[in-house]
Records
---
Amino acid sequence: MTAHVYELSHLQALEAEAIHITREVAAEFERPVLLFSGGKDSVVMLHLAAKAFWPARIPFPVMHVDTGHNFPEVLEFRDRTVERLGVRLVVASVEDSIAQGRVRERPDGVRNPLQTVTLLDAISAGGYDAVFGGARRDEEKARAKERVFSFRDEFGQWDPKNQRPELWSLYNGRHHRGEHIRVFPLSNWTELDIWQYLAAENIELPSIYFAHQREVFRRDNMWLAVSPFTSPREGEEVATLTVRYRTVGDVPVTGAVESTAASYDEVIAETAATRLTERGATRADDRLSEAAMEDRKREVYF
Amino acid sequence: MELLRFATAGSVDDGKSTLIGRLLYDTKSIFEDQLESIERTSRDRGDEQTNLALLTDGLRAEREQGITIDVAYRYFATPKRKFIIADTPGHIQYTRNMVTGASTANLALILVDARNGLVEQSRRHAFIASLLRVPHLVLCVNKMDLVDYDESVFERIKAEFRQFATKLDITDLTFVPVSALHGDNIVHRSANMPWYDGTSLLHHLEEVHIASDRNLIDARFPVQYVIRPQAQTNHDLHDYRGYAGTVAGGVLKAGDEVVVLPSGLTTRIDGIDTADGPVSEAFAPMSVTVRLTDDVDVSRGDMICRVHNQPRVTQDLDAMVCWLSDQPLHVRGMYAVKHTTRSVRAQVRDLTYRIDVNSLHRDEAATSLGLNDIGRVSLRTTQPLFVDEYRRNRTTGSFLLIDESTGATVGAGMLL
Ligand SMILES: Nc1nc2c(ncn2[C@@H]2O[C@H](COP(=O)(O)OP(=O)(O)OP(=O)(O)O)[C@@H](O)[C@H]2O)c(=O)[nH]1
Ligand SMILES: [Mg+2]
């Protein structure tokens, strides 16, 4: 921080804004929870929460909506991180929702769309009134429209045509019982900001974000990992490639990108030069239709 | 790198979203898959060329109606600056979303269709931008291609706006003739308007001086959250008590003599903490934690400031209010008020006048404010607030009015 110039760099400004939002939630809500998947955005969000309350502990639990289709490296990282920070982890399991008959497994085995039911059930079971999400507005055109404090009705629905005005840094978190607020402290961050911040703060990530060798096969124009949840169909050939992940999600629909970037600096250089959005490059579920994300957000998606 | 936030404004169809699309396209800030997606959509809809407005008009309803409904935020960078764009709707019905986008902007781009000149919505948005004290305004006369790039059209609209602007509080005003559709004067100077001797819009966005827009004089620290680790095992932290918040103005330094409002107790700043270690001073908008030398009682909603430079402590608010709800504001109505980190209730005591946005005439006979109306309102709060004039401080001078039964944000207030 350059004293006497009294200016913040863009990363410092984004950090200050996110910390402000996080503290507002802790002060004004009774039962906040932070969605933590082990993905890079949620890692940054959790890191910012730790900074916001330092030297005290984070005053709310974190929740992982677990599809059961995880990268083992990510699960291991998740458990280690919550342990280190001394926060309570709530796991909301899609497998449990299936076992309880709340949702039915899809014929294609993809569980991303099923998460919504699991998430809403967990929110109501925990009585959570504020749910932190790591979504960024640069990710997708419907997200580009969403408020920092995003009101959800009793069915968890978002009404994009009737959002609350949100002025200055005054966030209105009013809601009735059964309704809740989704809070997005990273709204104004871009993918590049996230990487620059991870590097500047030297924050650990699951190893799959960096280049590694992996058995993959081509489907829907993406490299999918060979895993207990996904195997090649006839005609889909397996290759061993040097890849990394740009996002971490449900294994069957998260694509890897070919890359040799093994360090923060190399990933930053690659991110600055990339010609594809992170979702365009790595998420099959967003390609379903033009308004796929808007439709899922209207329901209860993150 | 420095961050500039800007918002678009102006009437429906004047080309705001197209201009943002053009700016992103010509600065190569669009990803291939995004471009392919809007090319496909444009083709499917039978558009002659790729509709760049689709880059920000991302909602299904927006694409169906061909208008912007809510603010879209977009991000791009040049080697000189990082930009956060808020592309706001021009339609009168969605004025509250324009207010949302403009409230945090350093700069507003007001678009006017060269064929139509200023219309009521251009005036309303210019007035709102001046009320919100967006420090820099740029009037873009758009669709110059449809008036044969005629200098006299530009000069006429410029004169018309200057005339209107004399009645507004605008500190920095710039005019640029553009064609958002064809890219004239957006990123590059246009060969079609050799008579224009100013810079391209992007050049202006990169160069406009914003560092001095902040208040570094009046130290204001609204307490947001009390940090008490209460660590039984760690003796260093056992008695730690810090006041977390975002600096709202001025510069706080370790050692400063300060007063805590509302108690009026004076003490000193013992230290300013962050998770990265202590800092010797803090300024807006840093998020920090302040420790005080004396064990005084401080909680959320209190304000720490300098002994010889204090905000006004008052229950009487006199403010310009933008009304954002279908349910009109009524004199004697009760509302929840959110001001810095303090929440109180307030009764509307008087509507001094309502403003006609076309003529800026003050209607003193008005008895209520309807959706999108702007007026001067006095309120009496149930508890004191610590306020500054909005013109001195955008944070301690602003508040929200909230409907207590629905929880909706119904008004935005700027203190006089
Ligand atoms: N000829 C010409 N047409 C333009 C220009 N800029 C925009 N248009 C057209 O004007 C129409 C409206 O453009 P938009 O960008 O959607 O307008 P807007 O101001 O964003 O509208 P709202 O957001 O709904 O208020 C579209 O058909 C554009 O193609 C221009 O410079 N020249
Ligand atoms: Mg538009």
---
Amino acid sequence: MNVPMQQSDATVPTDELATESAQRPPRGLPFWANPRLGLLAVIVVLVLVFSSLRSSFLNTDLTLVPMQQDLSVFLVVGLAQLAVLSLGHMNLAVPRMAAISAFAMGWCYQHLSVPLWLGLVAGLIVGAAVGALAGWIISATGVNSFVVTLALDFALVGLVSLLYSHIGDGVAFAAHPAGMNTLRNDTFSDYCAGNVCGPPVPLIVPIALLAAVLVALLFRLSRVGREILMTGSNARAARLSGIPVSRRVVQAHALSGTLAALAGFLLAINSGAFSADIGNSFLLPSFLGPVLGGTLLSGGAVSVLGTIFGAALTEVIRTGLNLLNFSVQDLNIYIGLVLLVALSLDRVRHVLAERRGSRA
Amino acid sequence: MTFIAEQIVKVFPGVRALDRATLRLEPGTIHALLGENGAGKSTLIKVVTGVYQPDGGRLLSTAEDGSLTELSFGGPLDAQRAGIGVVHQERNLVPAFSVAENIALQAVPKRRGFVDQEAMRGLARRCLDRLDVHLDVDRPVSSLSVAQMQLVEIAKALAVDSKVLLLDEPTASLTGDEAEALYTVVGALRDQGHSVVLVTHKLEEVFAVADTMTVLRDGRSVAEAQPLAEHTRDDVVTLMVGRAHADLQLDSRSVDTTTAPALELENVSTAQGHHNISLHVRRGEILGLYGLVGAGRSELARAVLGLDAITGGTVRISGEPVRISSVGQALQRHRLGYVTENRKEEGVFLDQTIARNVSVTVWRRLARLGLVRGNDERALVEQYREQLGMRISGPTQLAGQLSGGNQQKVSLAKWLAADCDILVIDEPTVGIDVRTKAAFHELIVGLADAGIAILLISSDLPEMITLADRIAVMSEYRIVGELDNDHRYERTSHAVIRMIHAEIAS
Ligand SMILES: Nc1ncnc2c1ncn2[C@@H]1O[C@H](COP(=O)(O)OP(=O)(O)OP(=O)(O)O)[C@@H](O)[C@H]1O
Ligand SMILES: [Mg+2]
């Protein structure tokens, strides 16, 4: 055995070495381990597959416009969940926060005949208040968000049906405030300036995108959003760094409620009525978008762009399978499978990163 | 068995953490593994114990007859089976489990397929007794202090019988007496023919207990398995740093005693059990709060910061009685900051970037219209990177990827950035290398010279005597004495230790 016992050359200055190694480009993970790029690739492949199987997949009126409308709703639904995933919390009451806000909006239109925007504002306030209540219960009692929002959802189910049967008009409001049908039916291509017409994009799409941009800015640049993320990353360290932890928890949940309300509004516009079943289909999609897009369930990091891609992927699969005449049950099976596969991939990514001694 | 890690290479994204490092362990020796923060000590230990796969080099062991076997560990369990025990630098205890459960984790005694509770407690008690530690083995680990956790971690490593035992900064948060108990055990292990590796930044301990040493610099071994007897302290530091280095020598400082104290406690009692605590710090003064592990120093700081309840007495800031309810309030209203001793759980956000870690306390100040600009943050990181000698690849690196000492720098930097008038600093140089420690000391004195009042909590008596203007001694949640520090080690240390022992005897 011959282990070298010499004293190696001890003359290299430390700092020089340090900067040299710092300038070497980081050896990252393979590209498919980047969830956003991977998603985009899968979306492109699926679009190609579906459109070659059914040419109607690329038909503007039949498929593309309704797809964008659905996508807008589910993007905002995903953002509502993302708002609390940032804390490492969950909001299982997203469906009913949307429902009760939609009730508030419908009631305002019906009984107060307010303009469209004012009813929306009222609904957003209701959503924010219910969300804040959830956040307050969680931070005051220390009970897990899963349990609190599950219980809250359960209570709201009862409340919403009670409200519709007593002060609503059965299962839906009949009122159609001015502008509702325009918002539902028109696309930008209906508006022309001279010979130039807009693209076939429904009018509600910019509303959803605006929400996404605002949420992204909030978490990336604003102090409050960053402090929410730090709280999600390590609540004890956050408290000891002077962050008002309980206030941030309440704010994140209030944001979640507000976004749920917005999603309820968009769905009511799409379906043409403020009705009791708004929100029923929201729970799974609320997790699909963010989780497919790489937002961690453990908190501390969110990806709005990923959520957009995640929601888009779900929508492409749903529409494609629909065109291929899959039944609703089949559809649910496949969507569930997609989520499982995505979560496993996430795990694989983590393990891979760990092996290489770096964090994902 | 002689154990050799030969020419080990380990590359992380952007960093070559180990660059042909060699570690050679003879049976029956205590081997010191030395190097500055970020030199690669912990990484080498993780390679040797199967946590990381090396990118180059090999692990060998030789039998009595001189035959070589190449070892390869798929994971930590393989290394453990091969007789290699370890205490990692970062604690790996399960907070919700009891002390006994944690200690017995790798060697759970079973009876008919079920955990034998009594045998488990017995094992835990024996391991703790060897270290001369008296702890209720049924307490959940989450209720222990940092130092107690460290002792439990060491006891856990002793619970399995290993031929090679690697200790990564085992005494970082221990005081003299506890460290001594540990070294008695380690000495006994050596006499039984085990080899023990000791990583520490406390060079006095190295010279007191170790036989041989390996020095790492930037991932390379610049001295391999050399007998310590042939080296002086200055040699060793030169090997680590790459050039000669002198420790900080301080003279007595003068403090303006005419103004009201910046922070004053009068007869304060707390829910934790503190009784009639009175002390004060003036602007520009460093008050040292010394005591053994478990004396209640950090707990007192936490109560002042509003993290625990104060049940009696008065806290005054600049003469005004105050009631502080949170760290945020202390920072914004009273410009009072607290650097926690508990780096991993409370000091840094491991999965966030260095930029966010350093700037979290000052977003309020950096924000324009509620928005924080990335440039301001990065400028802040660059400033402290230079000032504290942080070894990082850039502001967007994740804090969890830094070496222990560099994480400590991040945790301190965020409070330096906060621009406080009063700083409570809890164990600032735990796990910090000699050169940086001197830089930290200079920095702390500089802060005091700039008029900041500093309450310094430290278990490192030499550090206390270097820095403090006055030293208050705490034992069992009471102040047992206070003395003016003349920066002379012999006299002051004797006086301090006498105070503690007099209290314990009575
Ligand atoms: N998981 C990781 N990902 C990326 N870089 C890492 C990782 N772990 C360690 N490093 C880098 O490797 C280098 C060596 O780190 P290591 O923890 O071995 O230092 P150390 O000698 O133990 O220092 P300290 O005395 O501060 O504990 C450092 O530059 C560190 O930033
Ligand atoms: Mg280390």
---
Amino acid sequence: MNKVLMSGNNIIGEAAIRAGCRFYAGYPITPQNELTEYMAEHMRKAEGGVFIQSESEVAAINMIAGASATGARVMTSSSSPGISLKQEGISSMAACELPGVIVNIMRGGPGLGNIRPSQGDYFQATRGGGHGDYRTMVFAPATCQELADLTMDAFDAADKYRTPVMILADGMMGQMMEPIIFKSPAPRVYPEKFMLRGAGSGKSKFIRGLLLDPIDAEEHNWKLARKYEVITEHETLCEEHNLEEADMVIVAYGTAARIAKGAIKRLRDHGMKIGLFRPITLWPFPELKLRALSAKVKNFLVFEMSTGQMLEDVRLALQGYAHIDFHGRPGGAVPTPAEFANVVARLYNKRD
Amino acid sequence: MMTKAIFSGFGGQGVLMMGTSLAHSAMSSGYHVTYLPAYGAEMRGGTANCTVAIGNEEIASPVASEPDYLIAMNSPSLFSFQTKVAARGIVFLNSSIISDRPSRSDLTVYSVPCGDIAQDLGNTRVANVVMMGAFIKKSGVVTPEMYLKSLETIMGSRKKGVAEVNRKAFAAGFDYIKD
Amino acid sequence: MAKIIFQKPKSLKEKIFHYCPGCGHSIVHRLMAEVIDEMGIQGITIGVPPAGCAVLAYNYFDVDMIESPHGRAPAMASGIKRMLPDRMVFCYQGDGDLAAIGLAESFHAANRGENITVIFINNAVYGMTGGQMAPTTLLNQKTTTSLAGRQTLLDGYPVKVSELFSQLEGSAYIERCMVNSPAFVNKTKKAIRKAFECQKAELGFSMVEILSACPTNWKMNTIDSCQWMDDVMSKVFPPGVFKDVTKATKKAAEVPS
Ligand SMILES: Cc1ncc(C[n+]2csc(CCOP(=O)(O)OP(=O)(O)O)c2C)c(N)n1
Ligand code: SF4
């Protein structure tokens, strides 16, 4: 297996194509332009591959919805403001049970914000984002290797549950390069009966989200809800780092978790027993695993590049069984491990 | 071991290539490595910089808060980054176009007239490779053989001449630094 | 006392532009500021900059301005103008902003005959995001998302916004100009003035499309960029007046009853 050095944005593109993605639509936005550009170059080279530079993100998400209905593996990507525009389409895909992968390389917000790495879109990603009673699965990679692996996994999950899946990373992950190895993707499993390819001589079918009869709509909502329950039960992922004998656990994801690891290393050298709990799926949130930790650990510190969003999920998971502190750096600011170590050390020394 | 370096200059000086080639050779040498370019609006008006971190274990942040090395290809880069360099860090200056010197006295400075050396070799575009020769000699983060191999991989084998010119440029920079 | 023959327009702030050398945005900013000064409307002008290289235009224009999401400037400007009909309201938009993501907003603002002025910078690429294909990218023009050059089969055709919008009954004044020579720069200034005058006379939607160089993403030097605009770009986007209701009303008045 060959190691390659690629940027995060390009890795997502390459992993998608290797996973069999054959339709991509997107609209330029920093800091994910390299992904759109990668697809422009490579998608058209892949057999049967289609690339469209859409006129807007609204158009892009609807283009992938259409291509998904025909049975293709599909992807679109953008960054925060563009993801806001996609919400209408994501809600529609969830309603129509169309698989697809949506990549959000987050930047500073709200509004146009800035183009620095940020984690301000956690609520939007994990709470559904658009209108209606639905969820999207959210993968939050923290290394370039995970970008490659989770992108492939996202396509499988999308097919398995016939639902939109989001990759939530940030500008730093999109821009940075690290050596990685592409795994070989599993063969695709997606029954033809879900594909809309023209009835031929058979019976015609339709895909819809509009259910005017409230009883039908209610049943559809419960059906989706049961699916989300299955996902919650089977699909949570997390990394537990240095938890043995920890007196304090940092909860962080993505880039923030990398910084936390750097800080933990420094503080362990000074004898402070600090561990890291890193959710890899943000929805479903690894709630039970985190709650189980509270039997041993009484001090948690949530660290996010936002004013505190995952914090709410941590509170829900710990249910008051442990003390929770929060440290946030919103708006595109990325602290160094040394800076963050100072914050952690102060809280560690004050713990009960 | 953990080494961080910032490469900075005008767009068109091949600054990002300096970073990617180093990162690639660090990967080939079996190290953990991250590479992070400046991006987006920062590039308007024509500047470029990137950071490379190389270590024996997983690298936490690709941002170089206190780089051990600054490789400045133009004066604005020297002024932007000299305050960030770690205590007793090392600065490489493209002395063909930088007449200023760092205001900090704890830094070791290597002035490499890489623009002039490249011109003597008949190709001003390889000034960046000349500088890499000097940097690899002094820092020793990777072997010259490994670096040249990565350089070739990155530049592609499109033109045979290119590899030859790069080799010469690298050697000239390497030899410019006396032990 | 020495006679002042050249100075910074009052409607520009004391700020150095962040635009690349040779970029058309800087020239157009100055022309607009001169027009605003000459018309004495600095205090009643409200501008809406785009998402694009000119996103920071409020750092340069010394008039009231409000940022809009990408492409939505004409919608925002419509809201502003309807509430404040006696102000001068302009949008400043790039080709991605106006003709891709914001086509619906600009099209319908023009069709409603919103009494606003749109300054439309056509540089045939997405500048800010690093040179991707724009709706106005020429056939065979290479960009970072049309690596082999724009192909009709895959990417369609360059959108001719002035020609299109001149067909809408709500539009009052539509002209296409260039800023690649002193003579053309002067002509562009006259067009901007005319567009603002139309708004002042409450004639409806006015737009000046300005062919403008992006040497950075065209990967050309400034001189070649200007030449390319003459030789290639202006052949696809011919300059000229596409709509002028002031002429039509004059003509109608001349017709004997
Ligand atoms: C919803 C949304 N999508 C994408 C972007 C990113 N974006 C900023 S400017 C721009 C296009 C700029 O091109 P153009 O309008 O031609 O103006 P120029 O920079 O060339 O002046 C894009 C795609 C954004 N800000 N918001
Ligand atoms: S990228 Fe192009 S449009 Fe943007 S400032 Fe530079 S020259 Fe002007």
---
Amino acid sequence: MRGMAALIIKDWRLIIRNRLLLVVLVIYPFLIMGVIGAAFGDAGRPVPIALVNMDGADTGEAAWTGIETDEAQGLQRRFRRRGGSVREYEGMEEAMAAMAVGEVNVLLASADTDGTAAWLGAELSRDEIDAIEQDLRGEADAWHEFSTAEEAAASLEEGRSDVLFAVWEEDYPYIAETIWLEGENHDASALVQRFGRDVTEIREYASERLARDDLKRGRVDAVIVLPRGFVHALKTLDEVAVLNVIIDQSNLVKAEFAETSIRGFTSRIKDGVVRNKTEAVVAGLYVLVSGGDFFGTEVTGLEQIRENLLDLKEATGDRPDMQGKVDVGIELAETVIADIEDAAAYLRGTALPIELEVSSVAGRVLSAKDAVVPSLIALSILWTGVLCGAILMVIEDEEGMRVRLGLTEMGAFSLVGSKLLLATAVVFAQSAVMLALAVAVFGVFASNALLALVIIAAASFSCIGIGLVIAAFARQVAGAVVLSVLVSFPLIFMTGAVFPLSQMPGFMQWIARAIPLTYAIEALSGVMLRGEALADVAWQTGALLAFGAGLLALGSFLVRRRSV
Amino acid sequence: MIAVRGLSKEFDGVKALRSVDLEVARGEAFGLIGPNGAGKTTLIRILTGQTPPSSGEVLFDGEEIDPLQPGYRLRIGLVPQEPAFYGRLTARENLALLARLYGIDRQSASGRVEWLLSWAGLEEHADRQARHYSRGMQQRLSLAMGLVHRPDIIYLDEPTSGLDPEARVSLWGLIDLLAGEGRSIFLTTHDMEEADRICDRLAILVEGSVRERGTPQHIKGLLGADRVEMRLPAGSEGELEAVCGRLGLSWRREGEIVTVTGPELPDKLPEIVSTLAGRVSDLHYREVTLEDAFLRFMRGVD
Ligand SMILES: Nc1ncnc2c1ncn2[C@@H]1O[C@H](COP(=O)(O)OP(=O)(O)OP(=O)(O)O)[C@@H](O)[C@H]1O
Ligand SMILES: [Mg+2]
């Protein structure tokens, strides 16, 4: 091992004096970490969801205005321009139907020269509607307001108005059906707001189209449409209460988050409804026993009936023929009372919902940010390890120094040894700083940082070994870098770093098992996120050391053989 | 000091060396001249243990050796054909690193490094990164790096190729100093001026085989050495034959022109001219250069 220290000092100088190497080997992984840190810094924030409440939405009304103007054609053109996606309708009936189902919220009709009318509709915001109204007033010679659609239509037909303008006004607060849950009365929208508030950020939209537009623009991650009769269905359980959910599946992670959170709070709503109903039935059953109002019918309780029968038995003590019949009645009443009590207890039991109390194996609920750090560190070990191993070795060829070094007295393994030591030190220091930064600055959770360092060291050997193997096939730093990237890239995708291993097909899992990085990620997330001890990750650590030994041996064999 | 016997090297079908025999004496400056691809670098690579020969043997001080063995390795120095130093280390750091790797203790190492820096004229630039040096300085550094451990023989593979005339002369000065210290020098070149100026003995290597060897004088002499060309009308052949025979020279005629060649021609010239007095005109003395010799041997013309 003679001369190793001098070689290491030399290599360190070569790195820090070469701006490109400095960036690639030392700084780059931190940049990546910063980017990912920034991306996940906000993780755990509520999922933005658009809510469109159609339950009771038919309780609106159109406000009709007619104006006299000679600018009818100009106004029509301007409406087309301002209205965005303007729809055309065949006649008043079709236009009003479209408005009633919420397809558009504004109509504009103008008499054409041939006597027919052109009906246009658009979905506009309040501000846009105001702007158009301003415009109309500007051109109006006279202004009429109508209380019904028929009046308005007649006015247009008879030529008293040149242009009709209708704005859909919803009757807020509309009297939608409500349901009593958790001590409060909720309409459909309030129900979603109340139960979704922990995991979602609900924004209400007037129509499905507006909500879909924002979904496409990425302003919300999902759209929930509460159909007409939603609360009614929920209350009566006459039919299944359907919630229409639209999810942007172009981003699977986003879709997954949105769907999970929606499923979460809707199942809580369902639990609440079922519990309420069951309690009502149970209460009703007790009424059968004790008497009172049984779902609107005044009943005499079974207990009263039993009392009466007992009285009857006493009163008919002298009539043995009656006693037998009365006894049958008493027995029946007692059996039914016991059965009802059993049934009530049973219903009570089933009414209790299943509650998920989520807690993490690490003893803390983890965020996406926490979960990404082990993979991030593993990737930086791979990146820096492979590149360091490859570049430091290939530099000797590029500088023509392999031959010179070969003639010196240095130990047989000094060259490979010095590269290994320096590269391990760089990888280790880098990962340690990264880990410290993640914990201290980004507040990431790491249940056992010290053990993570052990795994980092073990993982660095394999990566440096891969680097040495690459060095045997390149003669220039540029070539080594290209090869390193070519090799690392598929490795990243074939390990659990990007896709969960368990979701891969069988043969891919076997391939993943042959890649040391897989074990590094497993072990690192084990000790950082699952609070595992050395004994729990001994197998992965052992695999890493074995891979390391094998790859380093192969690498130094290939590198040394090539020098001859 | 070094001798090779029947050395051959084949790279998948390419015969780079064909049964080469050579000898370099202690303190001698030996030059291997040959065109591109002749096998010069291959021979140096074998002699410095970078690649094994396909057949043949290498003798060091009369004993057959494996060029990889430490005893030999430490006594040879190498200046490779391609520049070899760390561009981002300074001259001092480059030299100091090699001194450490040669196992020279720290104290003597720094003395040795300073000595080499001043020897190579690099003191002023000793703390600049070597990649910023001129080509000439880089080559001087490369030379100094081959000498860190005071080798007995130094292999120089085309040390001046790519240098301007001034840098070339300055490097030659350093090589002369080495020769003066009694180190053996094994130099390859295709620069005949360099070979003529530095080497005590030469070998011409063409397509992997040694075509000729000897002192520069001898090699030049083999070409019929210098020659005299003169216009001599027909009819004087008898007298010419007589004087050439007496002086040990040879002649031949091509039309009007007669060419006379032979050893020590300048000394014998007056006698020829006086013998043929009056009949000779247009007399030219043509000095043979190593360049001529080289070109002849390269073409295989003897
Ligand atoms: N590693 C190798 N593999 C295959 N062929 C080689 C190898 N090294 C040299 N050769 C071949 O051997 C022959 C001699 O090459 P060598 O480099 O020794 O020539 P040279 O005399 O040093 O030439 P130059 O003046 O260009 O340096 C050439 O034909 C070359 O192509
Ligand atoms: Mg060569």
